[in-house]
Each structure stands twice: as structure tokens, then as C-alpha cells.
Amino acid sequence: MRIHRLTLEAIGPFPGRHTIDFDELSAGGLFLLEGPTGAGKTTLIDAVVFALYGTMSGDSSDDRLHSDHAEPRVEPFVELVFSTGAGTFRVWRSPKFTRPKRRGDGVTVQNARAKLWRLVDAHDDGVAVSAHVQEVGDELGRIVVLDRAQFTQTVVLPQGQFASFLHARPEDRRAVLQEVFGTEIYDRLQQRLAEMAREVRSGVDGAARDVGSAAEAVVAAASTGATDQVDASPGPGRRTDDQGTDDPAAELRAAAAELDAPRLRALCDAARERWEARDADAARTRAGAEADEAAARERMDAARDLAARLTRRGALLEAERALYADAEAVRAAAGRLDLARRAAPVAPLLAAHQRAADRRSHAAAAREQAVVAAAAHDLEGVDGPEALRRAHDEATTTLGGLDPLVTVEDELPARSRALARAEAQAREATARTAELAATVDARPARREAIEEEIGHYRDAGTARERALAERRGAQEILHAARNADDAQTPVEIARADLTRAADDARTALDAEHDVRRRWVAGMAGVLAERLSPGRPCAVCGGTDHPAPARPTDEHATDEDVAGATAAREAADARLAQAQARLTGLTERLAALRDTAGGLTVERAQERVAAAEKQLEAAEAAVVRHAELAQSLTDHDAETTRLAAQLADARTTDATRAERIAEQSRRLAEDEKRCAAARGPAASVTERATQVRARARAARTLLEATTEAHDAALAMQDADERLTAALAEAELEDASVLRAALLDETEARALAERVEAHRAEVARVAAGLREPGIVELTGAEEPAAAAARERHEAARAALTRAAGAASETALRCRQVRAATDRLLAAVDAHARSHRRAAPVLRTAALATAGEGNTLDTTLATYVLLRRFEDVVAAANDRLTAMSDGRYALERIDEREGGQRSRKAGLGLRVRDHVTETPRDPHTLSGGETFYVSLCLALGLADVVRSEAGGIELGTLFVDEGFGSLDPETLDAVMKELGRLREGGRAVGVVSHVSEMKDRIPERVSVRRHPSGASTLALRH
Length: 1019
Prior knowledge:
By secondary structure, this protein is α+β, with helices and mostly antiparallel strands. Among the domains are: 1-145 and 960-965 and 992-1019, 3-Layer(aba) Sandwich (Rossmann fold), CATH 3.40.50.300; 198-321 and 743-839, no CATH class; 492-615. 66% of the residues lie in helices and 10% in strands. The chain contains 26 helices and 17 strands. A six-stranded antiparallel sheet has the order 2-1-4-5-8-9. A hairpin with a 2-residue loop joins strand 4 and strand 5. Helix 7 (184-222) runs antiparallel to helix 22 (784-846). The protein is flat. Residues 5-188 form the Rad50/SbcC-type AAA domain.
């Protein structure tokens, strides 16, 4: 991750807006944030953390974000441009703060806000991603990957937390390293292998169960019937009982339980052979019955065929007589159809002739009406198409010149009234301009009075800072005093809980001792129950058991012992928890009382009340100063606005006068044009209406004359075409044509009747000529009843034989399918066992199971190797910084000698002067600083070299250099200078003056006498 640019306003001690371009500042790889203690250096790092996570770094309170030195209405914000492997982004955040209400008096709380953009580069405007605080937080969590605690351990190392990674517990180091190196895939792989092991183990067990189920299916299939068994005689490997009869079902079950594949195959083959032999015998019996039934059926079919042919011959003769009787009516219908077919093509011409006659009549009536209408508009002598067309064109041309003047004439009264109103408004505007000029001339005197009053409140900000500090201290004491009172009751409750837990633990221990005593006392009876005649005793080895012991009523079982042990362990755990809770509450109570300084809640409240009164007076002075300053600003702004308004008013007055003169001139011109155009008419509108009516009458008469001529020609053509069509169809006239026409339903009915008669005649004739009919005389007698009885007897015999054969074949198929399923289940079990072996082996290695000699899971092993690389990279710099004295070592225990649940992520320091290991907590302040710095830089080196890891391109170090001696400081600065070779940048935060001589690129923070700060950049 690399930080490019930071902008802030009204944040902490910075009331103004400041921008830091880290790309320019860190061009040399190293830059300094310097200034006096408390000036605001750490606030810049807090601003970076707040922009990314919405909260401050370290233990800082978010209340210190909003600057007390800024104007109350100025919104505090932080804007950060940064880049990661996911791209370049710009985030803007504003914390929750209190501001004056925009309307009325008092204040209101402005909630926190946030925005996020994705950029093409660090100076691009970008594309908006979100403008909601929750969504921005979620997106930044995905982009930055590290949470706030991990970020402050690897990228931003705030004051007081620089050594947190060095002193972190192994579990916390594991979380940081896992996020930084992106090794979650190994955790997921480890979990997936464990799941696969459970799956394949379940598969093997399921395959074994399938073998047992398939064996039961074979037993059920091969034992169907009252007298059937799995097999008829002993086969290879068959066991028999003491009476000499075999038990194939038990043998099959035993072989399945033992998963004995060869024995299962032999038993399955024997069962199939027996049922296949039975199936062959039943099939031969059924074949003989089928032959007898076929012969009987053939004789019965011959008798039935003779009877059917005699019946068909009688029906055909009856149909022939009926067709002869209907022949004359069918011939008449065929003649009527022929006449209708000749008339059908001529019918459309008859309809067209009627339409032409109707058109001619309508056209003549329309022309007579048009002649009457034309006479009313001076068109009596105008006749013929050409004369009418000229009259229409002349009227249309005249109308084109009148239409625009109709609109002009309608608007003349409104325009005259508008001109009068404009002249009156011009006179009023001139008077207002004179009043505004007088107001502008009187404003300088008021400004001098405001400036004089502001001078009385110059020191209000400093007094407010002192009052705020006093109130914060009083509130902290009051908070601690109240918490101390509240904490007293939980301490008493915890002490009582500890007493009860101790009593419960003693009771559980006594109960466990009693159960174990009863369990030992009853062991003889338990062992005696397992004895049987001839079986050796587990204690003495003898086979005679003359007087075995008997269980007593007080005997305790293994379950009783386990339950008592679990109860005792649970009571011990509760006792430990109660002890830890009491210790924690007691320590917290002591700390609260120390913070309260021995004051009671009442005394602390009095102190807070006094501080509140002092702050109230100071804030009133600050508010009055701000009000006066705002009044001066508002006064100047209003003066500027009024002066601009006066200039605009004078310009507007001149423009308005010119516009009124132009409107008066145009109005006079349009009145003259309208008077000339209306002529003798009362208005232009009336003149236009007369001309439009003459044009319409001429056009209507022209169209009616043309239509009457066209209708006469169409009627003549229709007469000629109808006469020719009647002659061609051999029809006398139109009346004969109308009589010959048939509608579609009548024609279809006649055609269907003629066609049906012809088809029936052909069918009957063909039937009488059929070979099986033509040779019959009608005197034949079929013997169908006797043939049917013989066939019924043969079919009953076939049914019995087929039923027996089907039953045998079904049982044979069942045995064959069941044995096939059993053998398939045996093969599946073998394959499942072979497939499961490598998965179980791999899962055991990845999850620290059997065969893993390191007793370390895969995910932990990967982190161990990465952590070793971090320690090695840190030691490269630590050797130079400590002059060869110190080196970091990875250990499997926690710092302090306790065993870690996550082995391998512990740290200790090797002191080569004494060759003894040291706990990191025993290092001095300066030693802790440069050892932690080496560890942080080593982590950045390894992450940078790891493909897919998080790029740590920017690192901030807040304080710690003042604890180094000159020689060590030289070594530390030399190592930091090497960072520029890798393209990284380190920001050093320090107030030590010597650092300014060593680092030329810096941000200088300076405090004003008012308490506010500003900053300057030096590249």
C-alpha cells in the first residue's frame, strides 16, 4: 500500500486547509514530520487512519478530530489518495461534530459522512464508488485488507504502539501475518482436506454397508417360496450345522460381514446355476403348450372367417339395391351443379355493373349542389374545369397575404396596453435606483462601529482553551469516581461467586472420590459377569469358576465415573473463572480510585460544575467574537452586493428606455399595414373569411364536375363487359344469371351427394368381386362353436404353463440381479478403499494427524516459514543497528516460557555479548525502538518480495528516535536510508532537532500563540 496525498481541514490543531503530496515529499525514500511536542505531528497520522477506518489510531479519542480553533460552521474533513493492488482510490471523511443551526439559535449535531472514488491515477477526479458511511467502510475493508489494529502494526506505527508487533502474542502475530501474506488459502486447503477425509471415510463405511444390504437382497431373492433355500446342496467352502443340514443364508451373511470376495463369488455362482436350470425346464414346458394353442387357434380362426364372409356378402347385396333406387335424383343434382359452375365467373361483373350505376347517380346529385353553392360567391358565369381552377388559385393567393395580418391585427390592443405598463414600470425603477444609491453611501459608518466592538474579544479563544482543559480533567475525575462506586458492587458479587464456586468444587471432588471408590469396590462383580464355562479368567487364567463374585447395588459404572469426573472438571473451571473475574474487578476498582484522586462523586461533581461555569463564560465570549466577525464579513459582503446591485440597476434603466422606444415605433407601423389590407371590410379577419369561402366554393364545384364525368365513363365500360361475359357463358340475360347462382353451402351439399353416390357404387361393386366373396353361394354352414371350445381348453393349458415359466424366470432374474448387485458392491468397496487411502494420508499430514512428525498443521507450517523469513530480514538490519549485539530468534514457546497454542510464532532476543536469550519485554526503551523498527522493516521486505502479498510501500514511525544514543541513531538512519533503493518511503515523526539536519525533506508543524497549528512543506 502507498499513500499519495493527504488533505485536511478543521482537524485537531489545524483550523485551515492543508495538503501534503507524499509522492513529492517521499521522492528520496525518507521524510520527516517535525515540530514541538503537542503541535499536531501525530494528528497527521491520526488523519490517515481516520480516512481509512473512520476511527483514530491508538487510544486517541475521536473527539480530538474536530478543531476547536476552526470557525463553528466549517465542516472538518480528511481526504486521502492511496493505492493498493486493487487500484488507486480517493476517500473523503468528515467526523461527527457540533455546529450552529442554519436557522435560528442553538447548535445541532452533524453526523459523520464518507465518500469513495476509484481513480485512474493519483491526480484523476475518479469515478464514485459509494457515498454511504457503512458501504465506504465495507469497500475499504476489501481494498486495504488489513484491519485497523494490523494496519497500525505494519504501516502506521503511532506513538506508544511502535513495539506492539514485537510484544504481540503469537496468536495475534498469526492473524497479522495471515492477512499480510494472504495465506488464508492454506487454511481453506487444510479444512477442505479434513472434509475430504471425512467424506471418503464415510464413503468406505457406506460401501461396506452396501455389501451387507446386497447380501440380504440375495438371501431374499434366492429363498422365494415355501420350500426353496439359497441352494440345494453344499458347494465348495459350504459349512453345515451339527444335524448335517447346511445354512447358506448364514454363510452368505458371514462372508459379507467379513468382506470375503472369493467366497461371495462362489456362493453367487451356485445360486445362479440352480435357478437357471429351473428356468430352462419351465421354458420347454411352455413351448409345448404354445404349439397346441396355435393349432387350435388356427382351426377356430378358419370357422370365424367363413361366418364373417357370409355376413359381408349379404350386406353388399342389400346396399346394391338401395343405390339403384336413388340414381335418378343424383343425375338431377349433377345437372344443377353444371349450370351453377357456368354462372359463377360472370357474377363479379354483375356486381361491378351495379356499383357503376350507383356512382353515376351520386355524382350527378353532388354537382347540382355545388352549382347552387358557387352562385352565392359570385361564380355564376364561371364554368369548365380550367375557369374554376383559375378562380380557386386567385382566391388562395389573396388569402396568403391576409393570414399573417390577421394575427397582427388581433395583437394590436394587447401590445398597446403592454407599452403603457412598461412606461409606468420604467418610472418606478428610476425612483428605486435613486433610493439604492443613498443606502450605499451610508454603509461605511456602520462598518467602523463593528470593528471597534470586535477589539474587546481578541483573547476569547485562549480563555476557552484553558476552560476546556479544566473541564476535561474534572470530567475524567468524575467519570472515574462514578465508575469506582459502580465497580464496588460487582467486586462483592464476584467475591460471593468465588466462595460458592469453591464450595461447589470441593463438593464435586468429594463426589468423584466416592464414585471411584464404589467403582473399584464393584470391579470383581463386573469381571465375574464376563466369565463362562471353559473360558479362561482375565485375572487368574483359570477355566474353573466355582464361586464368582456378584455385582453389588452400590457398584458404580464407567459412565458414572466419567460423569463425576466431568462434573469435577466443570466445577474447577468455574472456580478458576470466578477467581480470574474477582482479580480483574479488584484491579480495575483500584485503578479507578487512583484516577479519581481520592475525590468522592459529590466533590467531583462540584469541580465539574465550576469548570462548566468557567467554560460557559469563555464560550459566550468566543461566540460573541465569532458573531461580530461574521457580522463584519456579512456587512462587507452586503456592501459589495448593494454596490453591484446599484450598477446593475442603472444599466437596466438605460436598457429599458431603449426597448420602450423600439416597441412604440413597431406598433405604429403594424397599425398602418392592417388598415391597408382590410379594404372595404370591417377588419382583416372579415376580409380573409370572405376570400377563403370563395376559394372553397370554386374547389368544391371543380371536384364535383370531374367526378360526374368519370362516373359516366365507368358506367359505359361496365355495360360492355357484362354483355360479353353473358354471351361467353351461354346465358340469356342477367335474370337467368341470378337464378343460376348457388351459395357455397348449397353447392357443397349437392357436390357431396353426387360424389358419395358414385363412391358407394364403386365400393359395393368391388366388394362383390373380392375373391373371398365371389365364390360364395350363400348355402355354406360354419362350425365356429366347436372350434372355439377346443381353443379355450388349449389356451387354459398354455396360461398355466406360461405362469409357471414367468414365475421361474422372474425369480431367476431376481437372483441374477441380486448377485450382480452384491458383486458390484464388493467391487465398489474395493475401489472406494483404494481411492480413500491417499486422501486420508494427505489429510492426516495437513491436519497434524498420524504420520506428521512435526505435529504442525499445514497453515501453521506456511506461516512459520514466512515468519522465519521476516526474522531473517529483520536481523539483517538489527546486526548493523545494534553493532552485532542483538539478533531475533523464533521459538515454539510464548515469550516468558509458556507453551503457545499456535506453536512457532514466539520471539526472543539473543544477546551475543552474554550469549543468553532475553524476553523482548526486558529491552530498554531505545533497544525496543530499533529492534521493533527492524522487525517492521523486515516484515515490509518479505511482503514486498512475496507475489500476491500486500504491498507495504509507505511506513510511518511516530517518535522513539530521542531514546537513541548518537552511534545507534547513525546506524538506524543508515538502515532507513537503504529503503530508497527498494522504492519504499518512510515517514519519521520526531521533535528531535538533530533529525532536521539528517532528513532534508520534511513537513514542519508550528503552533501559533492562539494554540492553533499550521504546517509547511520542504522538498
